[in-house]
Amino acid sequence: MQQNRILVTGGGGFLGKAIVKRLVDRGDEVFSFSRSFYPALEIIGVKQILGDIADAKAVEIACSGIDMVFHVAAKAGVSGKWIDYFKPNVIGTQNVADACIKKGVKYLVHTSSPSVVFDGSNMEGVDESIPYPTTYHAPYPETKAMAEKIVINAASANSQLFSAVILRPHLIWGPEDNHLLPGIISRAKRLKRVGDGKNLVDTIYIDNAAHAHILAGDRLKSDKSISGNIYFISQDDPVPLWKMVDDMLDAAGLPPIKGSISLKTAEIAGAAIETIFNILKIKKEPPMTRFMAKELGTSHWFDISRAKRDLGYYPIVSTQEGLVRLKEWLNRTKKES
Predict the structure, then answer these.
(1) 244-290, pLDDT tens digit by residue?
(2) 230 is a domain residue
(3) Three-class secondary structure of residue 304 per DSSP
(4) pTM, to two decimals
(5) φ/ψ of residue 302, rounded to 5
(6) Which residues 6+ apart lie within 8 Å of 256 measured at CB?
């Protein structure tokens, strides 16, 4: 069987590395494109190409001789300068799409986020037909929405030569998480529940997120009719957000959250804090923003029927099993440090 040459942008990140490992395990020739060098990738035989995703020439070089690209690299966050998100998320995605078409890469799996359709209200069981909102409360979801449109347009305009799909994983977590879990743990003592604590959300365990990406790439090669499609992916098991936070704290050996504030109070506080941080030009992530308040105080879970039907995606690790694995990893990490 011919070996696939696959490029993963952001291959050293949380999701990127999980995808890379699965591709390596099944025998693909894997390349990673990132700004930094990762020794862990070198150990498993991944060829690393260093560069900035916003540098069109660097991306073009990385895509040379590649069969498929998993575009995972992005800047995530709840606050910050617009340009800091626009460069990697929009310009970077345009560079990837352009390079794929110019260099003859036939397949692209693009990682997005359900936040691109979040309008600040409850989203319960919605599917991919839900439209983009008219306004956004943060640069991350807006720039990721712009990136989705770039991918869809590229696939439509070059349908004979190029196919692409978009995945929207929600709240990825698990061992080696370097974003969501550290944020929860670092704020554990001062965290308060936003709202009544009953809002349900989708999450996705890291192995399931990587599994869905691999399935999407394989299906795209065998069925070009799915090109241009968008897919929500999750545990298919909505949970109360604040119970999930407590479960993660428990896995880390920390007590549950005790206090709570109303969603309205959190929004007012978020707006005030954003204003202060902007005036004083404070660069660190604020403790609360309007976008964060709405994310923490509303329900957002999704119908993944399309991913089941088209990709054959079903979670391979349950939420409970994932929490057990997370706790084991955290305990192991403590002993090693």
Answers:
(1) 999 999 999 999 998 899 999 988 988 898 888 888 888 888 888 88
(2) yes
(3) coil
(4) 0.95
(5) -135, 155
(6) 246, 249, 250
Q: What CATH number is attached to the domain comprising 90? A: 3.40.50.720
Residue 268 maps to a domain: no
Share of the chain above pLDDT 70, in %: 99
Helix H or strand E segment including 327: helix 319-336
Which residue's entry shows tokens 């306004």? 135
24: containing domain: 5-174+202-238+301-316
Active site residues: 140
Q: Is residue 289 part of a domain?
A: no
Q: What is the pLDDT of residues 69-92, one digit of tens each?
A: 999 999 998 888 899 999 999 999
Q: Are strands 107-111 and 193-194 parallel, antiparallel or unpaired?
A: unpaired
Residue 322 maps to a domain: no
Residue 140: which residues within 8 A CB-CB, separation 6 or more? 75, 76, 77, 78, 85, 89, 113, 115
